[in-house]
Structures are given as structure tokens and as C-alpha cells.
Amino acid sequence: MSIVQVENLTKVYGKGETAVTALNHVNLSVNAGEFVAVMGPSGCGKSTLLHLVGGLDRPTEGHVAIEGQPLDNLSDEALTRLRRQKIGFVFQFYNLIPVLNATENAALPILLNGTSAAQAKARAREWLQKVGLGSRLDSRPDQLSGGQQQRVAIARALVAEPKLVLADEPTGNLDSHASDEIAALLRQVANEWGRAVVMVTHAPHIASYADRILFLKDGAIVDERRPEPRNANTADWVAGRM
Predict the structure, then answer these.
(1) Is the pTM above the cut of 0.70?
(2) What range defines the domain where residue 222 resides?
């Protein structure tokens, strides 16, 4: 089943001679249980694509649909509801609230959406256990490593049971060991838990965990590959494609 459907997606910033085309007629479909990595040089449109798919920005041309729901004519309020219910976000710098513990941080999205405190915390604990943090439920961010904080962020992204997870450089602030763990966890999110995952990354060895890799240049998809089977040489193959 297609969770993300993108057609002719274009984003232009500015007008006239100063106009910059950040995304140029992109077409993309992502299915449930699929892990897609987006790669390309700085300024190629990776983050712009993620923002448009996530309803954080609106396109100049083209269309985005999430689970068949077009985003085109949704009000800001309706877009906010859709993001809370259908999309989980994971960021490079975790964006955890320092004074809240792991359970409270992970519970926040559904707490804000009207779930009772008891139910929100119970579901947050469930997801924290699934991502390997069952022993750190009451730890604050400053008591966790970078990799552990990113696991909290992934639990937070999944707590509302969204069909789509968008990850923007999720390993960019981690060492190589923690980066591999987070990439493997995102693959589990897709392959075992059935979510569609779209991840922006600049790291070939992280992209090699994905089922499919899109290569962007000057705002357009210029290549698309499936790096299977994954082995010690896969990252070198991805770097070669870059």
C-alpha cells in the first residue's frame, strides 16, 4: 500500500532573477514497510523534499498525498492534525525537552492530542521498551547518551502509531557505533513494524541500511537504486554512486 504519493513536486524560493528552484518536478511513491534513503550534495533539495512530504511547507507546484489524503487544500489546522496522527518526525539534534524524562518526552505528542496522561505514559513506555530503553524510562536527556536520546526521539515519533516516519539526518550528531544502531533501528521500524520510513542522510554507510536509495542533484531525482543484499561492501557501492 502506498503511504506517500508525490507528483510533479516543485518548490521555488524567491521570484524573478533571484528565484531558486530547490525541488524540480519530483515524483515518488513510498509503500508501507519500506525504508527509503535520500542522498545528495548540500543544497540539492533533500530537506526541502522532507519538509514538503511532512506538510511543514507548501509546494510551488505538484501534489503530496499521505495515505491517499491530498495535502494541497488542507488548512494549517488540518495539516497539524494530520502530522500528529499520521507522521512521526526524527531530527538530527533529538529536540527533547530537558526537564522531562524519557517517558514524558515520548508521551508528549499524544498527550498534546488529547490522550489521557496515564494512557500516554503507558504507550510511551511500551515504545521505549521496543526501541531498547526499557531500563531508562525515568532518565532525563542529560542522563542519556546521544544514541539513547535518539532512541527516545524515535519512540516519540512512533507513539501516535503513524504510518510514516520522516528522519532528517538522524545520525548526523552520533558516533559511528551509535549511528549504525540507529540506522538498524529505523530499518526495524520499516521492516518489522510496517511503517514507511523516509530518511535524509549524507552518509553512505547509513544509506546502505535502506531498502531503496534516491540520489538528488539540483532538486531532481537523478538515480534510484536498491542496495541489496547488504554486506560490508554496500557502503562503498553507495559512495561510488554518489
Answers:
(1) yes
(2) 2-241
Q: Give 178's DSSP letter.
A: H
Instruction: State pLDDT tens for residues 189-213.
Output: 999 999 999 999 999 999 999 999 9
Percent share of the chain, pLDDT over 70: 94
3-state secondary structure of 142: helix
Report the alpha-carbon angle 92-233-227, nearest 5: 65
DSSP 58-86: --SEEEEEETTEE-TT--HHHHHHHHHHH
Q: How many domains does the chain have?
A: 1
Positive/negative CA dihedral, 186, 187, 188, 191: positive
Query: Residue 120: phi, psi to the nearest 5?
Result: -65, -45
CA atoms within 13 A on the CB side of 154: 31
* Closest-CA residue to 170 (of 187, 184, 182): 182
Q: Is 239 exposed, middle or buried (0-12, 13-18, 19+ CB in 10 A)?
A: middle
Q: How far is CA 55 from CA 26, 66, 167, 203, in A?
A: 16, 10, 14, 25
What CATH number does the domain containing 52 carry?
3.40.50.300
**Count of beta carbons in the 10 Å neighbourhood of residue 140:** 17
- Please name which of 180, 166, 168 lies closest in space to residue 234, comparing C-alpha atoms: 180
* Contact criterion met (CB below 8 Å) for 35 and 190: yes
